[in-house]
Amino acid sequence: AGSGAGADMRTEISTAAAFVTRLLRAAGGVGEEQLRCFRECLQEAMREHYKHHWFPLVPSKGSGYRCIRINHKMDPLIGKAAGMIGLNHERLFQLLPSELTLWVDPFEVSYRIGEDGSICVLYEGPQPGGKAAKQLESRTSCKEEWRIGRSSPSKSYNMMTVSS
């Protein structure tokens, strides 16, 4: 591959594939050998799919094309890799979140579970020009965002004082 696009996106692809594999492992019922094969198949499918859609100089270009999405429909790349280890879509829907968005972009891999969940960054690499290193500080981390979101008093507290 040399210094072509394939070499440049290795970290991003392996980060994304490892993440989906971890979700499968956490759900249980899939053997380690199957998981290893799934991860390799998914990485291969992603490499093939992204080959002509990877623009390190314009990282957001092609982002929609590279986005991995489960939204009551199984993402074809995940479906393809799962098929290689004998997992059908029905089984995948039991094992994986029913709403998952995974963005695989040059220098950043991030995901969101649920339609209005927080966006969490899995990987952020140094961009050419080195101006992106500070970006993360301005963004709230998932844990902080989770805490902020939960700190406002919930309306359900009022319902706890029901007397019989």
From TrEMBL:
- SUPFAM superfamilies, per this entry? BTG domain-like
Q: What protein is this chain from?
A: BTG1 protein
Q: Give the similarity note.
A: Belongs to the BTG family.
Q: Which InterPro entries match?
A: Anti_prolifrtn (IPR002087), BTG (IPR033332), BTG-like_sf (IPR036054)
Which BP terms from GO are recorded? Answer: negative regulation of cell population proliferation
Q: Which GO terms describe its cellular component?
A: cytoplasm; nucleus
Organism superkingdom: Eukaryota
- Any single Pfam family the record assigns to this protein: BTG
Signal sequence span is none
Q: Where is the Anti-proliferative protein domain?
A: 96-115
